[in-house]
Amino acid sequence: MQIKHNISLKTYNTFGIDALAKHFVTINSIVELKQALSLEGYPDIFVLGGGSNMLLTKNIDALVLHLNIKGISIVSEDEDSVLIQANAGENWHEFVLWCLANNFGGLENLSLIPGNVGSAPIQNIGAYGVELKDSFVSCQALDIASKTLKTYSKEACKFGYRNSIFKQEKKGKCIICNVTFKLSKKPHTLHTSYGSIANQLAIMNIIHPSIQDVSQAVIKIRQSKLPDPKQIGNSGSFFKNPVVSTEIYSKLQENFPDIPGYPVSETEIKVPAGWLIEKAGFKGKQFGEYGVHKEQALVLVNYGNAKGQEILELARLIQKTVKQLFNIVIDAEVNII
Ligand code: EPU
């Protein structure tokens, strides 16, 4: 374990923000993680996974633990399904590709999501009609205070829309080390009803899609709408889609007849924040080195050397404008550091 000092985090966060880590160590195993937590002289720690869901607005005055614990293994299998354990430092998309290469189904709709396996449960990543929780079995997380490993079942994780216990009461208290998924062998259950997937499969002339075809369709859609962090810094959706009551939604429809909405319960409707932000005039707007993506208004981008503070100010302006126009509060989805 080698501790480095004053390290730029620019290549460690997908927004590409050039903040400094006062101390930085790469962690390759649970044993190293425990050792790092026991080091003298580093009272504050900061856990860094794939860095794909954070906006750094300041330097990190702590010991940054860069989680790089690798490994994927089959825990058990029968004719229909397989239990796979993946370690926290595995890149999410590479893990999905590994599952597809082995013809294990369940994660194909979650193809190309940036980030690592260990961060995926924290915000219950989701896309195109599927969420992590749908194939999640359990995860093991190290309790920071006691340095003991604890297993969290699906129920214990309290998954919600972009939410879990790790964003709430366990925030900052434990570090996810590995995740176990239950995936299908044959026959697979496909989730192609999400509008754009069916369209994309039709464009690809595929009538009986495989899980690999669904993954390809998702990859095509994501590439057409979402900027590749390797080319343009971003953290995916910057905001969560707000949920409003059916009464509020009906009132909004009077003024904005084309407002989209997706029922989430009998009394609540989810409104796409991307639509609200586009209507507020921000889609594709560029302010020097940063701005709002031209294909998807929910994504804020760093074209080069933007400061985290600048992007945060833009986010605040968007929130304020959306509130003024629609009287709806949109909350950040990314972690503001
Ligand atoms: N829309 C606009 N203008 C825009 C963007 C969206 O009007 O610029 C409206 C359209 O009506 C569109 C609707 O919003 O039909 C939904 O857009 P989209 O399918 O792109 O999905 P989203 O709700 O904007 C969510 C997730 C994405 C995920 C997609 C696909 C959240 C916060 N975001 O976006 O997740 O990929 O659905 O399932 O729930 C992420 O979390 O980082 C992320 C990219």
Key phrases:
single chain; 337 residues; alpha+beta; Uridine Diphospho-n-acetylenolpyruvylglucosamine Reductase, domain 2; Uridine Diphospho-n-acetylenolpyruvylglucosamine Reductase, domain 3; Uridine Diphospho-n-acetylenolpyruvylglucosamine Reductase, domain 1; 3 domains; 5-stranded antiparallel beta sheet; 4-stranded mixed beta sheet; 8 helices; 20 strands; 24% helix; globular; binds uridine-diphosphate-2(N-acetylglucosaminyl) butyric acid
Structure characterization notes:
- This protein is α+β, with helices and mostly antiparallel strands and 337 residues long.
- The chain has three domains: 4-67, Uridine Diphospho-n-acetylenolpyruvylglucosamine Reductase, domain 2; 72-225, Uridine Diphospho-n-acetylenolpyruvylglucosamine Reductase, domain 3 (2-Layer Sandwich); 233-336, Alpha-Beta Complex (Uridine Diphospho-n-acetylenolpyruvylglucosamine Reductase, domain 1), CATH 3.90.78.10.
- It has helices at 30-37, 92-101, 154-157, 195-203, 211-225, 246-255, 273-279, 308-326; strands at residues 4-8, 20-27, 45-48, 54-55, 60-67, 72-77, 81-87, 126-127, 130-131, 136-143, 149-153, 174-184, 233-237, 243-245, 262-263, 268-270, 286-287, 290-292, 299-302, 335-336.
- The strands form six sheets. The protein has a five-stranded antiparallel sheet.
- Strand 10 (136-143) and strand 11 (149-153) form a beta hairpin.
- The chain is globular, with a radius of gyration of 20 Å.
- The two termini are 25 Å apart.
- 40% of the residues are buried.
- The mean pLDDT is 96.
- The protein binds uridine-diphosphate-2(N-acetylglucosaminyl) butyric acid.
